Amino acid sequence: MAEEVMNNKQIILKHYVEDYPKESDMEFKNNNIKLNVPEGSNVVVLKNLYLSCDPYMRSRMSKLEGSYVQSFTPGSPITGCGVAKVLESVDSNFQEGDLVWGMTGWEEYSIVTATQSALFKIHDKNVPLSYYTGILGMPGMTAYVGFYEICSPKKGETVFVSAASGAVGQLVGQFAKMLGCYVVGSAGTKEKVDLLKNKFDFDEAFNYKEEKDLVAALKRYFPNGIDIYFENVGGKMLDAVLLNMKLCGRIAVCGMISQYNLEKTEGVHNLFCLITKRIRMEGFLVSDHYHLYPKYLEMIIPQIKGGNVVYVEDIAEGLENAPKALVGLFYGRNVGKQVVKVSRE
Amino acid sequence: MAEEVMNNKQIILKHYVEDYPKESDMEFKNNNIKLNVPEGSNVVVLKNLYLSCDPYMRSRMSKLEGSYVQSFTPGSPITGCGVAKVLESVDSNFQEGDLVWGMTGWEEYSIVTATQSALFKIHDKNVPLSYYTGILGMPGMTAYVGFYEICSPKKGETVFVSAASGAVGQLVGQFAKMLGCYVVGSAGTKEKVDLLKNKFDFDEAFNYKEEKDLVAALKRYFPNGIDIYFENVGGKMLDAVLLNMKLCGRIAVCGMISQYNLEKTEGVHNLFCLITKRIRMEGFLVSDHYHLYPKYLEMIIPQIKGGNVVYVEDIAEGLENAPKALVGLFYGRNVGKQVVKVSRE
What we know:
Chain A has 345 residues and is an alpha/beta fold. The first copy, chain A, folds into two domains: 5-134 and 313-341, Quinone Oxidoreductase, Chain A, domain 1 (Alpha-Beta Complex), CATH 3.90.180.10; 138-287, NAD(P)-binding Rossmann-like Domain (Rossmann fold, 3-Layer(aba) Sandwich), CATH 3.40.50.720. Chain A contains ten helices and 15 strands. The first copy, chain A, has helices spanning 57-60, 114-117, 138-150, 169-178, 190-199, 214-221, 236-244, 273-276, 293-305, 322-329, and strands at residues 5-13, 26-34, 43-52, 79-89, 99-105, 109-113, 120-121, 158-161, 182-187, 204-207, 226-231, 245-253, 280-283, 313-317, 337-341. In chain A, the strands form three sheets. In chain A, strands 3, 4, 5, 6, 7, 14 and 15 form a seven-stranded mixed sheet that branches. In chain A, strands 10-9-8-11-12-13 form a six-stranded parallel sheet. In chain A, strands 1-2 form a two-stranded antiparallel ribbon. In chain A, strand 9, helix 5 and strand 10 form a beta-alpha-beta unit. In chain A, helix 3 crosses helix 4 (169-178). Chain A starts with a strand and ends with a strand. The model of chain A has no long low-confidence stretch (mean pLDDT 95). The interface between A and B is medium-sized, with 32 and 32 residues. Chains A, B: It comes from Solanum verrucosum. Chains A, B: This is Enoyl reductase (ER) domain-containing protein. Chains A, B: InterPro entries: ADH-like_C, ADH_N_2, ER, GroES-like_sf, MDR_fam, NAD(P)-bd_dom_sf.
């Protein structure tokens, strides 16, 4: 590729964020990018197609020290998972025209290294490409690992999933149903509750915002208790779940979205239940488990093509709408996996 | 044994307890007991020698519904673990003169069934009999199971034990040292801290009451973090520990004594660390693990006789002092395992 300076629209984080993030914390900016590849480098030049909005990104908007993720750099583009097309590559594992997913910038073009970006080559293109930000990407692997590796599920067990219509939750519920579990999900709107029951085949679902007493709500759906809780929200819901767990229950701690924008997190009061009910509560990060990704693809792609697993996405059109999409996540405005489409190809 | 009516001193729970228990919640009373054995029954008549004061007994002083333990019955004697001598037995597994340990009454004589009382026959008498309320009984098994089965410990790991000079903690620390771990304990007096360092061979120990900042205190003793936390106290200490855990750490949840007398338990705020550090936090009850008791005895008795494991008891003399001993437990007044001696034999 000859030296080429291109216009490169970007979403810049203006400053560290406190409380709920706002669109005004980010800026849509026109910059230039030199797409020529520096000699002696090992970079891959990407044209970004789909960007992923994920709850963990809230942490990266804060000033962090010694955390499991790095803060975004104010003044620079936000980074996150995305699907992209390779425009040029010095890395011999990638070639012009390849489709990939991994960490990329919130911009039209990014220059990355395959290692830092943890780039995966996309082999199967007979599925929507955006799925590689969701069911075939990080959230899919999160659901797979969290449910099968952390929850130790057995046929016939009772499973509760919070934030159940989200990128991860909708899959956990479907995996649990495939295994023959009884599955209930919670979500924050009637539309999402309908999705859970009608589209994702959950046995039951409820709108947590309409329940005055979460302990009683869970008791209603789980009169004999919960074997497995897939935790996406934290706070009051976790406290209510603890009181409703069965003996020897398991809690996979995947996320705590209800707490991310609070200056001081809510206290959890019912941890004594861990003892009386011999509960195992275990946190996990999908990044420890990517060696299972080929095995996961082998399982999930036929399920998608056979229509046994469905996936709902909420796709915002255009990079300029990415800030709104990301902010909306923390108000539960997305219905299904929140994606931003930057370019069709 | 001919029909015989004996004077039977008892400790009666007067009423359900709220807040911290007081001596006046219990009553020392003279009753009579018929020591003759009902025909057709399967009972064992016991003369109680040692009674055990254990933190879990606080729950039983409250009105409970659907808990893992049953409430005591107001107007009746308190029950708990104890060592006793068999005066008479219809159960063919026990004979007059046998020494046993299991659930018995806080009284001089009790009539029990072996099943309900989960009676174990004492075979090795070349150790202090009171040890069967502690290191050779329920607390010993609790330490053994909690450490070896729940913590998945490895040589060289860092271990923190709270309430470390108590019936369970002092053993967990010694087990961890035997395995080649670095062990730190917390306790509530200088005397206990000295015990931990000088008697139980902990690497370090500190008085949590003298630390303004528990997070900083733990950081001081664990600059590289905690692999294993043996949780006996709950509340603020748990919150501080969560911030100091290492990646892939384990928390065995054995007890939460700091919370038992609170009307509303303290909230725990740092559970998000479970995710970022991939921590497994698991509660357990010793009662699920008694099949390991013979294996435990085989391991521990030679260690006691060889002087490799030591055990400190705090023995209150006389049944009349049992209420004070039990109440003292919740103020940390006991130094080591709290026992009540009812009779030498």
